[in-house]
Fold these 4 entries.
Entry 1:
Amino acid sequence: MTQVSEPLDLSTDKTLDRDCTTLSRHVLQQLQNFGPDAQDLSALMNRIALAGKLIARRFSRAGLMEDVLGFTGEVNVQGESVKKMDIYANEVFISVFKQSGLVCRLASEEMEKPYYIPENCPIGRYTLLYDPIDGSSNTDINLSLGSIFSIRQQEGTDLDGEAKDLLTNGRKQLAAGYILYGPSTMLVYSIGKGVHFFTLDPSLGEFILTEENVKIPDHGAVYSVNEGNFWQWDEQYREYIRYVHRTEGYTARYSGAMVSDIHRTLVQGGVFLYPGTLQKPEGKLRLLYESAPLAFLIEQAGGSATTGTVDILDVVPKQLHQRTPLIIGSKKDVAKVESFIQNGH
């Protein structure tokens, strides 16, 4: 005889206890006013969230749809093979911000020059810099990926279309963060007032606040680096890796998608490294689209980010697609790597 289950007691459903603070509402609360600048930032974050929802939906159906996965056969301005999802995600950000009325320019690692939205430029005072898909190598194997973003205020008129006002240090960023596409879709952001986690609730279609004022531990057990490049690094980096190999308590984790590794580092502590190589001492990561936004976020959480000699947020780029080495994470772990670079131990 089939037993009839007890009626669901909604009073015990702890998910209903959450305040359900949405992203746009949270931005306004952070700024503690409803003035034009606060409204602008709230609207911009809403647009970033919309882009994240569209990309997450595409990922969730990727294996069921034709012409979503794989390479396009083209090479981007960085000299890298382009995935179909790279192109889709880049176009999503453009489409979403065309409708914002606030953004005059979008700069992406997938585009050689900024994309201008003429109809927005008379009033659009902001620029969005972004990496539409971080970790493209994970696209076709169903592993975590991310998007990285940064918001800056336009300085000057930029009549020549060279966007030279973007060639300033990372402390000029108004906001930065990332979207993580994993078992759940998360949006992590800062407007210079702490770091906050939001999780996409598919039933509501909203990013809901799940953790506020996140702090990175001062030290963590995990180091994250592509050790396949070991023999291409300077000796100081190799010596650091030898140190963690022979020191009890360290664990290696590396996903191939920086957003995933940074998120783990932010939650659990530790350090993420992407050194330059002997052939390319400038490294692989783009300063404006990857390193500076993540450095802004990690510093807001109480961590550190450096090239090994200079704080990432103090580096002034000479070109839009400038690359930089990156050491980022818990303060004590970043300092340990720096000590090897600067002192050899």
Entry 2:
Amino acid sequence: MEIHGSPVRFMPPSGPVALRAARWGGRLLIAGVLLFFAFPGLLAATLVSRSDGRPGSAQVQALQRAGDAVVALRVAAIGGARSADSLGRERVGSGVVIGPDGLILTIGYLLLEAETIEIVTQDDHVLPAREVAYDLATGFGLVRPLVPLRGIEPVPFAGVGSVKAGEPLLVATGSSSGTEVAFTRLVATRPFSGYWEYYIDTALFTSPPVINHSGAALFNRNGELLGIGSLFVMETGGPDHGPPGNMFVPVQLLRPVLAEMQATGTTRASVRPWLGISSSEHDGQVEIVRVDRSGPALAAGLQPGDVVLEIDGVEVRTLEAFYKQLWKRPAPESDVVLTVRQGSEVRKIKVHAIDRMQTLRKPESI
């Protein structure tokens, strides 16, 4: 998307490097899974399922099936895509098979304005795919291969209530030479407010960080899917509380909307007012840091550096409060009155909000 003002960047971490698991006929070697259990003090205490200190065969098989379900995704956005400025036109990430028909769950921003989507299997087969859905509200995306994915079982889901802070977890990313795995820990489970007009009530924060987080699968010790990788963040413990790590969108948010996403391509919650701004929250203030060149906020006169004090006369001091007040409207196309401080002056600015989904370009065939 085109933006006006200083960029906010989530810089990739310098480490740790993901551990690539060996392959055996396209499957993770059991030796690779055993390595997952081989770190005393870090993993064994919570991941061992046998009294002799070795993982049980059922658990190893579950982790192997989970690894087999992870694929790589390659996406090319349509020419002139507005999202190319921030995401690039060529995008790579991961996905995980969640349906018996090969339905793949990934992070939705990879699919924005996609012209072509390819699935790259662990034995380097490239399969064409199509976008099934993008849910702006949760951030999830769904992809389905145009030819069958054979020999891959869908992964089971786990709720965030099944994992506790400090618990070791496994992050799996797809590649053409085998699933890559990295070890991490759950730091916190809490709400997340994104600067790009995004909010979810529950997010999973893990550390140490994984570089290739886009669409990466977060598994527990039983090979159950907990979340899908979204971001690198500097403070996993909350504002001013490290360490750096990743934010994962929990799959429990998918359960209530999966059928709707497959049926309609989105969800009702995604059809909501959009202003076209990026904002930060600090010391009880919401400050605009970027303004989208194609969004309604720029046309209304909002600028980077403006501090949002009220929305429709209701005071907002956090991004969460700002977004929830904005999204109360029953229709996305509506006038919103923002009280903002511009320098030393306080002004009321009317912005005609629009539907974000209607601003995204699509290939001619869609």
Entry 3:
Amino acid sequence: MSLSAVLSADGPSPTPSESGTPRVPTLQDAHESATNAAGWVEQNWSTWLAIGLRVLLILVIATVLRVVVRRAITKLVDRMSRTGQAVDGSGLGGLLVNVERRRQRSQAIGSVLRSVASFLILGTAALMILGTFQINLAPLLASAGVAGVAIGFGARNLVTDFLSGVFMILEDQYGVGDTVDAGVASGEVIEVGLRVTKLRGDSGEIWYVRNGEVKRIGNLSQGWATAGVDVTVRSDEDLERVKATLTEVAERMTKEEPWNELLWSAIEVLGLDSVLLDSMVVRVSAKTMPGKSLTVERELRWRIKRAFDATGIRIVGGATAMEDAAAADPTAGMAAPSVYSSTLSPQSMAASPLPPSTTK
């Protein structure tokens, strides 16, 4: 059979104009599409309306709950900040409270609690919305768990620093303005963060200490400090006169400004700390404002020295102790001149070698 016969048997071929022109939808086609869409909406509108109302209800409840919880946390933190002022009704308790430290601690605690609350509430709401759309949450939760474990394992140092910072702030171990010894560094705290604490050293340098690296902390600004002065006098001094002089100096210093504010207790003469053959040590001590012990010790030494000089009490190694000492003979340690130093002495002549004999 020939090709022309096959083509004629299949029917007339379409013209180029009929095959290349797209079919234009008619009014009847548009009417059918609108009818089908209206029917689908009529059949499913109740389901979608229920889903929308459920999602809206979840969002409203989550938003209201988040606002209520954040406001409750703010009030709780403010109450903690106010009750910190009433730790002790005395003047000592009032001075223990640092305004900047309390403010920063309250802000840090409130920020952490608000962030955790928002994450839990919004995360739960997002999962409930996904469940409303009939989405299987098991693979999503499994993937999130695996990702969380991987991130936690890779950033374990960061997690350790963060958790250490949270507990450090909650326990109020130190704050802005405190002088601390963190082991790896020491100085005054200038900023407290959840991951890093900034310290300013004695020479002005700034130390960035990770909270997770701090194994022990020594706070030199909490409570009170102790100023101790050891006064070394001769063993033959009258102890009653020494004690009376020290007591007079202590009473006068306690009543004068600004020392009456720095001293949080009376200056006490504790008594003899040690007794040696040629000296004895009398110890004087007092409680001071945190960080002011060295200042009080310097002033106390200055006053004690002036009082001892006025009363004639001798201090070991001082100027008054050397006044009665006789001047040492500068020639006492020198050896006597030797008789061999003169070449004309009989000893030198006898020790001289004999002249050589001459032979004829």
Entry 4:
Amino acid sequence: MSSQEIPEEVLPAERDTAHGAVEGAGDPFADPGLPAHRPRIQDIDERAARRSERAVAFMFTLSMLATVAFIASYVIFPVDQIVYIWPFGHVSSLNFSLGLTLGVALFCIGAGAVHWARTLMSDVEVADDRHAIEAEPEVKAKVLADFADGAKESAIGRRKLIRNTMFGALALVPLSGVMLLRDLGPLPEKKLRSTLWAKGKQLINMNTMEPLRPEDVVVGSLTFAMPEGLEEDAHDFQTQIAKAALMIIRIEPDNIKDKREREWAHEGIVAFSKICTHVGCPISLYEQQTHHVLCPCHQSTFDLSDGARVIFGPAGHALPQLRIGVNSEGNLEALGDFEEPVGPAFWERG
């Protein structure tokens, strides 16, 4: 069908202009303009505005409480406690509580800010022309004026409840990060000053897992022992054995030079910490003629016949000695804990 055959009423009204444009055709990229502003209920009803203000303040307050709960959880829950929480299953109580409380604290700040902006701050749309990147003095003045207008329209000065609770939430949230600094090292407690050894605890041979008897230890031999009651499948076995591991050596009493060492021994059987006092490596190299033990890590050498004093290497002090005796069953037992901290020096040694 040719254009002459198309009914005149369906043809577009056309008229050539001086520039060849088609008059009457619509511009597909025309600016539709901003829609008419529709006021919210908070804009016309002060009671609704008060309700929104209280809702925002409630979320900010809840954020503050969640931050306090985060700090409390960090202190209360032990790091190795496992609990069952449906539907997550068995989880770390510490990790779960920290994640939950920190998530609530951050979510409530964000939700409160969004609710504040959507219900109480001005929602009038303003069109602004683009300008060059370099700001002129007039532009700077306009930005400052716009900022002042925005602060005024946000009602932060008039809505004191929101302002104060927001400042409180923002001030408390960083404390969560401060608490995480605790993981940089142990708290200043006395954990390094004590071990599992106590009066009456039997010495268990770490090879046979049987109580040690004096006749099991011969002159020139080296035996390793651990405290009675410590199990290898215990969750804290590595932590405890790192402090309580013993070297058991039998020396002829006449060859023991140190008076206290002789008094704390039983028939020449002496018990010293196996943990090197340099960086905590386990000592296992014994020379029976000289009664010297050598740390394989940095060659610190200790004389077990003279109070385990350092005779070579970077170790800072002698190996701690454990006072031992024999119980009614004829087994070797501890007569107390070490009197000196085990292992390397630490800052609160004093």
